[in-house]
User: Fold Ribonuclease BN from Candidatus Berkelbacteria bacterium RBG_13_40_8.
Amino acid sequence: MLKKKKICVVVPAYNEEKHISEVIQTMPAFVDLIIVIDDQSKDQTVRQAHQAAKKFHKKVAIIRQPRNRGVGAAIATGYKQAIIHRMDVTAVMAGDAQMAAEELKSIVLPVVKKEADYVKGNRLTYRQAWQIIPKMRYLGNSVLSLLTKIASGYWHVADSQTGYTAVSKTILEKIDLESLYPRYGFPNDMLVCLNVANARVKEIPIRPVYHSGGKSGIRLWKVVPTISWLLLRRFFWRLKVKYIIEDFHPLVFFYFLAIILFLASLFLLVRLIYLWVESGHIPPINALALVFCVIMTTQFLFFAMWFDMDYNKDLKVK
Assistant:
């Protein structure tokens, strides 16, 4: 326990026979329950977890998914178990030992103290992050983090992709865990749902850890478009639930007008190119119409974002 609060750690694992023992062995003593969720590993992950549990940590529950469903589904399964065991705070640490165990206390403490409802680690603010994190992953992370700011309404969250998190039992019970995205887009989807639940979110700087010679299963060329499409859908879902159904805010009109004018800009651009190809010159009135639409699109979009940022300012925990 930590300050009389029961602490649980969910460990999603898939083919982590080399590292799962280290994760269990280095788990801090204040952790009351470790829930290892094996996502149908093809190696000896489960066996290694059982051996480590007997040797290093007695309070370990090992659950095997009925089929490979993805890291997000594994975490959601762990969250459900944490609710059943009535854990006050539930953290997530990956089974690949790339989350420093000594930083767990700083992750869970703001939730324990009720300063925040959800805490995320932030690797990007670490002073040597650019040298430690693989360059393509750093850039992909930055792009997805920017898109997640817009989709989730948490404009202060800089590292959306890190899975080192902690959440309160109260907030977990407000979220439909079954509806969360089951694979790599889980942390992005989680933030969108947290915003609808009006959860206070705090970021904690953490040290990025990467094993030398390790090979990531993430393929950016596939993951970035997939998560971007997820964020687009969940963005409109958040606007509908938070700003139309639960409460009304005029920012929906600004976003709607920005979309309409953006489509009009595309139409005018295509027409302008067509006229230029056909006649060899650009009619001034067509050019002015395009410039007007682009300017108005930008203005409506920025106003909508500003309204959204202002509405959610109380959900930012410093």
